[in-house]
Amino acid sequence: MDLFKKTLDPIVALAIIALLDVFLFVIVGAWTVGGGETMIAGLVAKYVLGAKTLARIPFWTLVFTPTWAYWKIYISLGMGFGAFVAAVLSKEFYWRVPRHLSEWVMITIGGLLMGIGIRMSFVCNVSTFFGLTPEMNLGGYLAVSGIVAGAWVGSLIYKKVLEA
Amino acid sequence: MITVTGQCVAAFIFGSTVGVLVQRSRWCNTAALRDAMLFKSYRNTKALLVGMMILTLGFTGFISVGNGNPMRFDVGLNQFVGLFLFGIGMVLAGACTVSSWVKTGEGNIGAMWALLFLIVGLFVSSLLWSFTYWPPAPAAMTGQPNLAGLQFGFADALTLQQKTGIPAIVFGLIQFAALFGLYRAILRKERAIQMARGVVPSESASPASRAGAAVPEAVGAAMSDGSGASGSFQEEA
Predict the structure, then answer these.
(1) Whole-angstrom distance, CA of residue A9 vs CA of residue A4
(2) Do B105 and A81 touch (CB under 8 A)?
(3) Cα–Cα distance for residue pair B148/B74, rounded to 1 Å
(4) What are the tens digits of pLDDT across the range B166-208?
(5) Within an 8 Å CB–CB cutoff, is residue B187 touching chain A?
(6) Closest CA to B111 of A51, A95, A150
């Protein structure tokens, strides 16, 4: 199939995703990733610490009660699965390992900051651009301003690290 | 009403399709912001805007006819602060929530590492929530302003429709026009950059001195256009 030979135009890809997202919005809710990831964090913590210990942390009883019956988890798992299938079919699957220590440090700090950010705002970049803002939520506009400012600061740091 | 299993199956089918399309198009939300700022390259930004334009019309259209499931939680300053931290993090990690899953599927160990620490970050900061209880849990939100918690209640196309009686699609069209204006500004800027680089052949016959004089002008136009575009992006989107 041609899809697995040539690179797809991102505009076409995003247009199809947007149409599917509208459909998802009608049946359950808009595309989001952060919610699923929060639930995955809770499920992992429940497995590692045990349900009793986790129940002593208010966040996991008052805000998110870990359960597998939460649709947002399956969007995340689906994205990993779909990308795996597409990468194998287009012969682009291979193990890629960051080479430099600086990359590992940046990825670690970046990952932690993304996690803290999601927990704090209850939204991620996907629900910002593909959920809240198209729903014209004022929180979406605040989130877009935040992510643009953050990406700008991040770009300055990234540039410094690249130059060093 | 769709069952829980139905929701999970629909979500998985949606996610898998997104995974295939994002993997094949190499689209990345981080690049959409970072490349526009650092390298003046807009391949991913344009796709992001097209997606948002379609979604704005789709979502507000369905809200107008009383359909759809908009997210209902309070608007708060936590959304700005949280996404500010997220924005720094995604550029440092070189991946956002979408691309970290997609790259993990492609066998990228760095993306898996980012996901692992995203989950660690989520868990560690969930411990902090126990001390402050801020921001308030979505389940406790009423939709009314709660100034002590820096929360301003519900405010989206649905609230606008309910308060003004004007169908949400009218507001959606305004946002669509704003996003489209931004898209056009990017196209103009791309053309200006191409002109400055001499890609457009019409300049090739002109004397070197004239071409030399034209270049700084085009670059200047590109720069001013760009700052205008990014400024308006923050304001309206």
Answers:
(1) 13
(2) yes
(3) 13
(4) 999 999 999 999 999 999 999 999 999 999 988 765 544 444 4
(5) no
(6) A95
